[in-house]
Write a structure and sequence with these properties.
There is one protein chain. With 187 residues, the chain is α+β, with helices and mostly antiparallel strands. It has one domain. The chain is built from four helices and six strands. The strands form two sheets. Strands 3-2-5-6 form a four-stranded antiparallel beta sheet. A two-stranded antiparallel sheet has the order 1-4. Helix 1 runs antiparallel to helix 4. The longest helix has 51 residues. The protein starts with a helix and ends in a 6-residue tail after the last strand.
Length: 187
């Protein structure tokens, strides 16, 4: 009886080593490639916005299409920080009490604000029409753009590792973030 139990254990271990380990390694490699592809697309998209100074519907749709080619489902979160200068006064009611200093304040605009400009509610213009060219979200030099990708889907590596090591439902979704200062206003 003990001999049969050890043979069954050895067979299960052999199956795990011969099939599961290579499958997990291949899945992990594929996940790394997908993550690098998504990050490369993210960097190119943000750098294009930083160099052009605007975001157009065609730029956004091309980025969303490139991200979908990785096979994962991502939430795209946009953040625009607009730089403003506020003068410092001893008495805000008296303009002659100016201290000669300025405070820098950032107004933040998020995904819904940016998409509302790119895709207005009564969307009468098709993407190929001349009116679509004017639908751009404009940035100013010195503003910041930050884009985050949060993966909503589970990869094959996630599924295999939860099978091998137990459930990992409580972990945070994978995320990629990239951003920087807008360098140019090319519109």
């Amino acid at each position: 009886m003990i001999n049969a139990l050890s043979k069954m254990t050895a067979a299960l271990l052999a199956v795990a080593l011969l099939y599961m380990y290579p499958a997990m390694q291949a899945a992990q490699r594929q996940e790394d490639i997908d993550t690098l592809t998504a990050y490369n697309s993210l960097v190119q998209f943000v750098d294009a916005i930083r160099n052009k100074g605007y975001l157009s519907p065609s730029m956004y749709e091309e980025f969303a299409q490139q991200i979908s080619l990785t096979g994962g489902v991502y939430d795209i979160e946009l953040e625009h920080k607009h730089k403003k200068y506020h003068p410092e006064y001893d008495d805000p009611k008296d303009e002659t009490s100016f201290k000669g200093e300025f405070t820098i304040v950032y107004d933040s605009y998020f995904t819904s604000d940016l998409l509302r400009v790119l895709y207005p509610e009564p969307l009468y213009t098709a993407e190929g029409s001349p009116e679509a060219i004017f639908r751009k979200y404009m940035f100013e030099t010195g503003d910041y753009i930050i884009i985050s990708l949060k993966q909503r889907s589970k990869s094959s590596y996630d599924i295999l590792s939860s099978l091998m090591y137990g459930s990992m439902d409580g972990r945070d979704p994978k995320g990629l973030t990239y951003g920087g200062m807008v360098l140019n206003e090319d519109y």
